[in-house]
């Protein structure tokens, strides 16, 4: 049963990795680079500064760094315990897939997926939750921006398949872990906020 699931995962990876060969390679290579998303993080900081009083906003911005660090630490711990080879290092795949990056660490789960979804969930929850109403300024963010917040991690996570370094299950589990951790940190944020009022 497990081997069947692994094989389905490989075949889905092959299919997704082979889509649009040559047409969007530059796009996926650009998207998958962490440093290219720094302006988006600055936009998150801006939204939080608009949404909250200065002390609460600073705590929320620090929360972004904390949720990213904790998610990355947990991801690396699990990766080293499970020790699943990445597609780009898998002998049965290496000669039949597109590979645009060659990381040597392990695959399960995707750190890019987990961290981006954790941060996006944390920020989105802080901006939309009804608990924030007593702390926020009017018209802090337009609802259309909330959809854009999640376009980022979806695209970012998908890029990991397209550049040949993660299987679909790596990405999906990373997404789920990120959402759970982002939600947990958001809840902890509001507990901290209520204790400091």
Automatic annotation (TrEMBL):
SUPFAM superfamilies listed in its UniProt record: Acid phosphatase/Vanadium-dependent haloperoxidase (SSF48317)
Residues spanning the membrane: 27-49, 56-78, 114-133, 145-165, 171-192
Domain Phosphatidic acid phosphatase type 2/haloperoxidase: 62-186
Gene3D superfamilies, alphabetized: Phosphatidic acid phosphatase type 2/haloperoxidase (1.20.144.10)
Pfam families: PAP2
Domain of life, source organism: Bacteria
Keywords associated with the record: Membrane, Transmembrane, Transmembrane helix
Cited PANTHER family: AT30094P (PTHR14969:SF13), SPHINGOSINE-1-PHOSPHATE PHOSPHOHYDROLASE (PTHR14969)
Name of the featured protein: Phosphatase PAP2 family protein
């Amino acid at each position: 049963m497990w081997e069947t699931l692994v094989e389905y995962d490989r075949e889905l990876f092959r299919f997704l990795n082979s889509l649009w060969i040559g047409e969007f390679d530059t796009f996926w290579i650009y998207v998958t680079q962490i440093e290219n998303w720094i302006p988006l993080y600055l936009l998150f900081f801006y939204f939080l500064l608009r949404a909250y009083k200065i002390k609460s906003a600073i705590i929320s911005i620090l929360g972004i760094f904390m949720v990213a660090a904790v998610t990355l630490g947990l991801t690396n711990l699990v990766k080293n315990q499970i020790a699943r080879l990445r597609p780009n290092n898998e002998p049965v795949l290496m000669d039949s897939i597109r590979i645009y990056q060659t990381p040597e660490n392990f695959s399960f789960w995707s750190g890019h997926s987990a961290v981006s979804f954790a941060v996006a969930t944390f920020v989105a929850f802080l901006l939309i939750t009804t608990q924030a109403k007593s702390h926020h300024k009017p018209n802090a963010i337009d609802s259309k921006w909330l959809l854009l917040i999640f376009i980022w991690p979806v695209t970012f996570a998908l890029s990991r398949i397209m550049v040949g370094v993660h299987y679909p299950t790596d990405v999906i589990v990373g997404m789920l872990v990120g959402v759970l951790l982002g939600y947990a940190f958001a809840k902890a944020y509001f507990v901290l906020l209520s204790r400091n009022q």
